[in-house]
Abortive phage resistance protein
Amino acid sequence: MSNSPVLELQALAGDPSSDIVAVLLKAKMIAVKLNLNDLSEWLEYEIEGYPTGNDIPKYRVGRGIVKAFNPYHGWFPVDFSNVSPDFIESASEFRITESISSMKKGESKDGMLRITMPPKMVNLLFGSHDIHPEVCWFFSANKLNHIVTTVRNKILTWSLELEKQGIMGDGLLFTQKEKDAAPMTITNNNTNNFHAPVNNAGAIGAGNSGDINQQNSISVGDIASLERELKSHGLDDNDVAELKQLVEQSPKPASKEEVEKGFGAWIGKMTGKAFTGALKVAGTAAPAVLTNAICCYFGIPV
Protein backbone atom coordinates (compact mmCIF):
# COMPACT_ATOMS: atom_id res chain seq x y z
CA MET A 1 0.00 0.00 0.00
CA SER A 2 2.89 2.31 -0.90
CA ASN A 3 0.49 4.54 -2.85
CA SER A 4 -1.79 5.22 0.10
CA PRO A 5 -2.53 8.92 0.74
CA VAL A 6 -3.30 8.05 4.35
CA LEU A 7 0.20 6.63 4.88
CA GLU A 8 1.66 9.65 3.10
CA LEU A 9 -0.25 11.89 5.51
CA GLN A 10 1.07 9.92 8.48
CA ALA A 11 4.63 10.41 7.25
CA LEU A 12 4.08 14.13 6.82
CA ALA A 13 2.27 14.70 10.11
CA GLY A 14 4.72 12.56 12.06
CA ASP A 15 7.75 14.49 10.82
CA PRO A 16 8.26 17.61 12.99
CA SER A 17 10.36 19.18 10.23
CA SER A 18 7.64 18.89 7.58
CA ASP A 19 5.71 21.99 6.51
CA ILE A 20 2.48 22.19 8.54
CA VAL A 21 0.69 23.70 5.53
CA ALA A 22 1.63 20.64 3.45
CA VAL A 23 0.18 18.48 6.22
CA LEU A 24 -3.06 20.46 6.22
CA LEU A 25 -3.43 20.39 2.44
CA LYS A 26 -2.91 16.62 2.31
CA ALA A 27 -5.42 16.13 5.14
CA LYS A 28 -7.91 18.43 3.38
CA MET A 29 -7.63 16.40 0.17
CA ILE A 30 -8.42 13.18 2.05
CA ALA A 31 -11.25 14.72 4.08
CA VAL A 32 -12.94 16.18 0.99
CA LYS A 33 -12.71 12.89 -0.92
CA LEU A 34 -14.24 11.08 2.07
CA ASN A 35 -17.05 13.66 2.26
CA LEU A 36 -16.12 14.71 5.82
CA ASN A 37 -17.52 18.21 5.69
CA ASP A 38 -16.98 19.27 9.31
CA LEU A 39 -13.39 18.12 9.24
CA SER A 40 -12.81 19.80 5.86
CA GLU A 41 -14.16 23.05 7.28
CA TRP A 42 -11.80 22.92 10.25
CA LEU A 43 -8.82 22.25 7.98
CA GLU A 44 -9.85 25.15 5.73
CA TYR A 45 -10.01 27.47 8.73
CA GLU A 46 -6.53 26.42 9.81
CA ILE A 47 -5.23 27.06 6.28
CA GLU A 48 -7.03 30.36 5.62
CA GLY A 49 -7.68 31.68 9.13
CA TYR A 50 -10.85 31.90 11.21
CA PRO A 51 -13.53 34.46 10.30
CA THR A 52 -14.27 35.51 13.89
CA GLY A 53 -12.66 35.30 17.28
CA ASN A 54 -15.61 33.59 18.91
CA ASP A 55 -16.08 30.10 17.52
CA ILE A 56 -12.49 28.93 17.42
CA PRO A 57 -10.80 25.90 19.01
CA LYS A 58 -9.69 26.28 22.60
CA TYR A 59 -6.08 25.59 21.66
CA ARG A 60 -6.15 28.97 19.88
CA VAL A 61 -7.29 30.76 23.04
CA GLY A 62 -4.80 32.02 25.61
CA ARG A 63 -4.20 34.51 28.39
CA GLY A 64 -1.78 37.35 28.01
CA ILE A 65 -0.45 40.40 29.79
CA VAL A 66 -2.51 43.48 28.89
CA LYS A 67 -0.31 46.49 28.13
CA ALA A 68 -1.00 49.99 26.81
CA PHE A 69 1.41 52.10 24.81
CA ASN A 70 2.68 55.43 26.12
CA PRO A 71 4.54 57.45 23.45
CA TYR A 72 6.99 58.71 26.08
CA HIS A 73 7.53 55.63 28.21
CA GLY A 74 6.67 52.77 25.88
CA TRP A 75 4.55 49.78 26.86
CA PHE A 76 3.26 49.51 30.43
CA PRO A 77 0.93 46.98 32.13
CA VAL A 78 -2.69 48.09 32.50
CA ASP A 79 -3.69 48.57 36.14
CA PHE A 80 -6.48 46.15 37.07
CA SER A 81 -6.32 46.77 40.82
CA ASN A 82 -9.81 48.28 41.01
CA VAL A 83 -11.74 45.75 38.92
CA SER A 84 -13.22 42.35 39.68
CA PRO A 85 -11.26 39.10 39.15
CA ASP A 86 -13.85 38.00 36.58
CA PHE A 87 -13.23 41.10 34.50
CA ILE A 88 -9.47 40.61 34.73
CA GLU A 89 -9.87 37.04 33.54
CA SER A 90 -12.04 38.13 30.62
CA ALA A 91 -9.83 41.06 29.65
CA SER A 92 -6.66 38.95 29.63
CA GLU A 93 -8.09 36.33 27.26
CA PHE A 94 -7.06 36.57 23.61
CA ARG A 95 -7.93 34.54 20.50
CA ILE A 96 -5.60 33.82 17.61
CA THR A 97 -7.58 33.77 14.35
CA GLU A 98 -4.73 34.04 11.82
CA SER A 99 -3.92 31.25 9.38
CA ILE A 100 -1.46 28.69 10.61
CA SER A 101 0.99 29.68 7.85
CA SER A 102 1.24 33.19 9.33
CA MET A 103 2.57 31.67 12.55
CA LYS A 104 5.87 30.95 10.82
CA LYS A 105 6.46 34.69 10.99
CA GLY A 106 5.81 34.90 14.70
CA GLU A 107 9.41 35.49 15.71
CA SER A 108 10.41 37.77 18.56
CA LYS A 109 13.78 38.70 20.02
CA ASP A 110 12.50 38.66 23.59
CA GLY A 111 10.32 35.57 23.15
CA MET A 112 7.10 37.59 23.40
CA LEU A 113 4.47 38.42 20.78
CA ARG A 114 1.51 40.77 20.88
CA ILE A 115 -2.02 41.00 19.48
CA THR A 116 -3.83 44.33 19.24
CA MET A 117 -6.95 44.53 21.40
CA PRO A 118 -10.13 45.44 19.46
CA PRO A 119 -11.66 48.92 20.04
CA LYS A 120 -14.75 47.60 21.86
CA MET A 121 -12.58 45.92 24.47
CA VAL A 122 -10.42 49.01 24.81
CA ASN A 123 -13.58 51.06 25.46
CA LEU A 124 -14.43 48.75 28.34
CA LEU A 125 -11.00 49.37 29.85
CA PHE A 126 -10.71 53.12 29.35
CA GLY A 127 -14.23 54.33 28.70
CA SER A 128 -15.75 55.73 25.52
CA HIS A 129 -13.33 58.57 24.92
CA ASP A 130 -12.28 59.90 21.54
CA ILE A 131 -8.64 58.98 21.98
CA HIS A 132 -7.30 55.74 23.42
CA PRO A 133 -3.80 54.37 23.73
CA GLU A 134 -2.91 51.30 21.71
CA VAL A 135 -3.61 48.25 23.87
CA CYS A 136 -2.25 44.79 23.21
CA TRP A 137 -2.09 41.34 24.71
CA PHE A 138 1.50 40.21 25.19
CA PHE A 139 2.12 36.46 25.28
CA SER A 140 4.86 33.90 24.83
CA ALA A 141 5.83 32.99 21.28
CA ASN A 142 5.66 29.37 22.43
CA LYS A 143 1.87 29.66 22.10
CA LEU A 144 2.23 29.55 18.32
CA ASN A 145 4.40 26.46 18.54
CA HIS A 146 1.76 24.88 20.74
CA ILE A 147 -0.94 25.55 18.14
CA VAL A 148 1.10 24.08 15.30
CA THR A 149 2.02 21.00 17.35
CA THR A 150 -1.57 20.50 18.46
CA VAL A 151 -2.89 20.65 14.89
CA ARG A 152 -0.14 18.31 13.67
CA ASN A 153 -0.89 15.82 16.45
CA LYS A 154 -4.63 15.88 15.79
CA ILE A 155 -4.12 15.15 12.10
CA LEU A 156 -1.67 12.36 12.87
CA THR A 157 -4.10 10.78 15.33
CA TRP A 158 -6.88 11.00 12.75
CA SER A 159 -4.75 9.42 10.02
CA LEU A 160 -3.84 6.54 12.36
CA GLU A 161 -7.53 6.04 13.09
CA LEU A 162 -8.23 5.90 9.35
CA GLU A 163 -5.62 3.16 8.96
CA LYS A 164 -7.04 1.30 11.94
CA GLN A 165 -10.43 1.29 10.22
CA GLY A 166 -8.92 0.05 6.96
CA ILE A 167 -9.42 3.36 5.13
CA MET A 168 -6.22 3.72 3.12
CA GLY A 169 -7.08 4.94 -0.38
CA ASP A 170 -5.17 4.19 -3.54
CA GLY A 171 -3.43 7.16 -5.08
CA LEU A 172 -6.08 9.87 -5.23
CA LEU A 173 -9.01 7.48 -5.01
CA PHE A 174 -11.06 5.98 -2.18
CA THR A 175 -13.54 3.16 -2.61
CA GLN A 176 -17.22 3.65 -1.86
CA LYS A 177 -16.82 1.27 1.06
CA GLU A 178 -14.09 3.48 2.52
CA LYS A 179 -16.24 6.58 2.02
CA ASP A 180 -19.18 4.92 3.77
CA ALA A 181 -17.00 3.90 6.71
CA ALA A 182 -15.13 7.19 7.02
CA PRO A 183 -17.64 9.25 9.02
CA MET A 184 -17.65 6.85 11.96
CA THR A 185 -13.94 6.41 11.68
CA ILE A 186 -13.21 10.05 11.82
CA THR A 187 -15.74 10.26 14.40
CA ASN A 188 -13.11 8.56 16.55
CA ASN A 189 -10.36 11.03 16.55
CA ASN A 190 -10.27 16.75 19.06
CA THR A 191 -10.24 21.19 24.00
CA ASN A 192 -10.17 22.30 22.10
CA ASN A 193 -6.65 21.59 21.74
CA PHE A 194 -10.32 21.21 15.75
CA HIS A 195 -11.56 20.72 19.03
CA ALA A 196 -7.98 19.84 18.41
CA PRO A 197 -8.84 18.81 15.75
CA VAL A 198 -7.49 15.70 16.03
CA ASN A 199 -6.89 14.77 19.51
CA ASN A 200 -9.81 13.06 18.14
CA ALA A 201 -10.14 12.00 14.67
CA GLY A 202 -13.56 13.35 15.03
CA ALA A 203 -13.25 16.13 17.49
CA ILE A 204 -10.78 18.70 16.77
CA GLY A 205 -10.68 20.59 19.81
CA ALA A 206 -12.82 18.85 22.32
CA GLY A 207 -11.39 18.90 25.74
CA ASN A 208 -12.20 15.74 27.61
CA SER A 209 -11.74 12.11 26.89
CA GLY A 210 -15.39 11.30 27.36
CA ASP A 211 -16.75 8.59 29.60
CA ILE A 212 -18.27 5.85 27.47
CA ASN A 213 -20.06 4.45 30.51
CA GLN A 214 -22.16 7.52 31.13
CA GLN A 215 -25.43 6.28 29.69
CA ASN A 216 -26.87 4.93 32.97
CA SER A 217 -29.37 7.81 33.09
CA ILE A 218 -31.01 6.71 29.83
CA SER A 219 -34.22 4.71 30.22
CA VAL A 220 -35.20 2.21 27.53
CA GLY A 221 -37.66 3.82 25.12
CA ASP A 222 -37.57 7.19 26.92
CA ILE A 223 -36.55 9.68 24.24
CA ALA A 224 -36.46 12.54 26.78
CA SER A 225 -33.76 10.79 28.82
CA LEU A 226 -31.74 10.21 25.64
CA GLU A 227 -32.09 13.89 24.72
CA ARG A 228 -30.89 14.99 28.17
CA GLU A 229 -27.88 12.70 27.96
CA LEU A 230 -26.91 13.95 24.52
CA LYS A 231 -27.31 17.60 25.48
CA SER A 232 -25.07 16.99 28.48
CA HIS A 233 -22.36 16.20 25.93
CA GLY A 234 -22.92 19.52 24.17
CA LEU A 235 -25.24 18.50 21.32
CA ASP A 236 -27.65 21.27 20.37
CA ASP A 237 -31.40 21.12 19.70
CA ASN A 238 -30.94 20.58 15.96
CA ASP A 239 -28.56 17.66 16.50
CA VAL A 240 -30.97 16.00 18.91
CA ALA A 241 -33.98 16.66 16.65
CA GLU A 242 -32.15 15.06 13.75
CA LEU A 243 -31.48 11.92 15.78
CA LYS A 244 -35.07 11.84 17.05
CA GLN A 245 -36.31 11.88 13.46
CA LEU A 246 -33.95 9.01 12.60
CA VAL A 247 -35.22 7.02 15.59
CA GLU A 248 -38.81 7.50 14.45
CA GLN A 249 -38.16 6.66 10.81
CA SER A 250 -35.60 3.86 11.05
CA PRO A 251 -36.25 0.17 11.79
CA LYS A 252 -35.60 -0.68 15.44
CA PRO A 253 -32.06 -2.08 15.72
CA ALA A 254 -31.51 -5.35 17.54
CA SER A 255 -27.75 -5.15 18.06
CA LYS A 256 -24.93 -2.69 18.48
CA GLU A 257 -23.81 -3.46 14.94
CA GLU A 258 -27.23 -2.47 13.60
CA VAL A 259 -27.05 0.78 15.57
CA GLU A 260 -23.66 1.56 14.02
CA LYS A 261 -25.02 0.78 10.56
CA GLY A 262 -28.34 2.57 10.87
CA PHE A 263 -27.12 5.65 12.74
CA GLY A 264 -23.52 5.72 11.50
CA ALA A 265 -23.90 8.80 9.32
CA TRP A 266 -25.37 10.82 12.21
CA ILE A 267 -22.73 9.54 14.64
CA GLY A 268 -20.05 10.46 12.12
CA LYS A 269 -21.46 13.94 11.72
CA MET A 270 -21.54 14.48 15.49
CA THR A 271 -18.03 13.11 15.84
CA GLY A 272 -16.91 15.61 13.25
CA LYS A 273 -18.32 18.35 15.48
CA ALA A 274 -16.49 16.85 18.45
CA PHE A 275 -13.37 16.88 16.35
CA THR A 276 -13.71 20.64 16.04
CA GLY A 277 -14.22 21.06 19.77
CA ALA A 278 -17.91 21.93 19.47
CA LEU A 279 -18.96 19.16 21.86
CA LYS A 280 -18.03 18.31 25.44
CA VAL A 281 -16.54 14.99 24.44
CA ALA A 282 -13.31 14.25 22.60
CA GLY A 283 -13.43 13.04 19.03
CA THR A 284 -11.69 9.81 19.93
CA ALA A 285 -14.40 8.98 22.45
CA ALA A 286 -17.42 10.38 20.60
CA PRO A 287 -18.27 7.30 18.48
CA ALA A 288 -18.44 5.02 21.52
CA VAL A 289 -20.27 7.57 23.68
CA LEU A 290 -22.94 8.23 21.07
CA THR A 291 -23.31 4.61 20.00
CA ASN A 292 -23.69 3.45 23.59
CA ALA A 293 -26.28 6.15 24.29
CA ILE A 294 -28.43 4.99 21.38
CA CYS A 295 -27.97 1.36 22.39
CA CYS A 296 -29.14 2.16 25.92
CA TYR A 297 -32.26 3.83 24.53
CA PHE A 298 -33.10 0.70 22.55
CA GLY A 299 -32.19 -1.62 25.45
CA ILE A 300 -29.23 -3.12 23.63
CA PRO A 301 -26.31 -4.33 25.81
CA VAL A 302 -23.06 -2.43 25.27
